[in-house]
Amino acid sequence: MSSEQGHRPDPSHDGHGHSHGLIDPSIKRSRAGLRAVVLSLLVLGLTALLQVLIFASSGSIALLADLIHNFGDAATAIPLGVAFALRSERAERGAGYFVVLAIFVSACVAGYEAVERLLHPEDVTHLGVVALAGALGFAGNMIAAVIRSRAGRTLGSPALVADGNHARADAYVSLAVVASALAVAAGLQVADPLIGLAITAVIVKITWDSWWTVRGGYDNHHEH
User: Fold this and answer.
1) How far is the C-alpha of 84 from the C-alpha of 44, rounded, in Å?
2) How many CA atoms lie within 13 A of 104 on its CB side?
3) pLDDT tens across 50-72, in order?
4) Where are the domains of the chain?
């Protein structure tokens, strides 16, 4: 009797049969991934919404570049969340590549807006709130970066790690918005679209780094 009990799992025994080692880790990983994705989505979504309100009253291109990228960053949470819900490595890898694409698209939009402002200059107003928006972007992205990076390393998810590195870099990009406000306050109106172009260049670099993080992470995983 004791031998049978030792080798025959009871599926109704609160998940403590042999299936515990095969199913539960997958479920736990899915839930942990979803939790990280949702939390970072809320943080970045709120940050971007606050920046939209400030941009509407300021017209800063540097701020526009930053908030466009923050919205794009928040949107990358959707395919990542779906991948974790499906518990599919293939879907997770696809989500990682979607993250890279979203970063690249945001770079294109931000670059276009910066060039447009260089060709058709406009005054930037409410510099104090523009600087505040940059500070909000820095804080929101750093929080999202910690959430995503920590979960990505714990769960062994290159896609989530890439998204975390992406958010961390964005935090420093947001500081450029503060620099733009200070430059315009000093009388350098052209500094605003120029800083917008600089932000675009940084986003392109993030795109490249994120591509290699996702591709290299899954390739190394399969080698093992």
Assistant:
1) 19
2) 11
3) 878 877 777 777 677 777 767 76
4) 17-223
